[in-house]
Amino acid sequence: MRIPLVAGNWKLNGTRASIKELVEGLQSGISAIKKTQVAVCPPYVYLNEVGQMLADGPGPIAMGSQDVSAEDSGAFTGEVAGTMIREMGCAYAIVGHSERRSIYGESDELTARKFAAARRHGLKPILCVGETLQEREQNITEKVVARQIDAVIDLEGIDAFKDAVIAYEPVWAIGTGMTATPEQAQEVHAFIRGRIAAEDQSVADGLQILYGGSVKGNNAEELFAKPDIDGGLIGGASLAAGEFLTICQAAD
Ligand code: PEP
C-alpha cells in the first residue's frame, strides 16, 4: 500500500510576506490531513525561512527544492548544491521539470546527473517526465517517457528508484488549465510502473508516481482515485493554502 504524496511547486512566485502567510495557512489546516505526505517547494532564497517555520510549527509538512545542481561545489556561478539544500532542511529535490527541460535546455543526461546529486546528499528526487502536445499527437508519449526514465536507470541503476518519486507531467497540461483525463493519466502511470517493474517488481510496487498538470481542488479526487496515481505535483493551485489543502484532502 503506497502512501500518497502531494507536493507544491511554488516556482518563481512569492515575497517574504506572502510566503509567510501561505505557510501559516497550510499549518492552520494540516491537522486535518491524516495519512498523505505533504511537501512544499519554495524558491531557493526562501528555503531557510520556510524550513524554520515548518520545523517550529504544526505539521508534518516536508520541504523540497525546485532543482539541484549536478555539481557538488566549485566554480559554478548561480548553482545550488545538494549539500546546501539538505542543510536548509529539504527532504526532496525536483529534477527535470519541463520548464527546466524546455526553457533552459536541460537534457535527459543532465537531469539524470541532478537525480544522482540529489541522492548523493540524502534528498529524495522527484523526477518529472512527460510529453509535449506534439509528441502526444505523434503517438510517442510512451517512447518519450521511457527515454526520460531510462536515462536515470542507465546512470544510477533501478535501485535508485527505491528512494525516489516520479511525477508524470504532460507538458501540455502544465499551467494551461488543460488537465489530462483520469484515464489518460492512469494509462501513462501504468506504463511507467510497468517500465520500472520490468527491471524490479518490488521497486515498482513501492514507487510513488504523482500526476501533475492543472490539478485543482475540483479535479484532484477523480485523478487520485486511479490505481497508479499516488498523489500530485501541484503548481498554480499550491499558491493558495485553502486550495492546496483541498487537494491534499482528496489524496487522503
Ligand atoms: C507544475 O509546474 O509542476 C505544475 C503541475 O503546474 P500546474 O499545476 O500549474 O499545471
Can you walk through the features of this model?
The chain has 252 residues and is of the alpha/beta class. It has one domain (5-251): TIM Barrel, CATH 3.20.20.70. It has eleven helices and eight strands. The chain has an eight-stranded parallel sheet with strand order 7-6-5-4-3-2-1-8. Strand 2 (37-41), helix 2 (47-56) and strand 3 (62-65) form a beta-alpha-beta unit. Helix 1 runs parallel beside helix 11 (241-251) and helix 5 packs across helix 7. It is globular, with a radius of gyration of 17 Å. The model has no long low-confidence stretch (mean pLDDT 97). The structure holds phosphoenolpyruvate. Phosphoenolpyruvate is lined by residues 9, 169, 174-175, 212-215, 233-237.
Strand percentage: 5-15%
Number of helical regions: 11
Low-confidence segments, ≥5 residues, pLDDT <50? Answer: none
What number is the mean pLDDT?
A: 97
One letter per element, helices H and strands E, the order comes to: EHEHEHEHHEHHEHHEHEH
Q: Architecture, CATH level 2?
A: Alpha-Beta Barrel
Shape: globular
Provide the spatial order of strands within the biggest beta sheet: 7-6-5-4-3-2-1-8
SS class: alpha/beta
Distance between the termini: 13 Å
In the CATH hierarchy, what is the superfamily? Aldolase class I
Largest sheet: 8 strands, parallel
CATH class categorisation: Alpha Beta
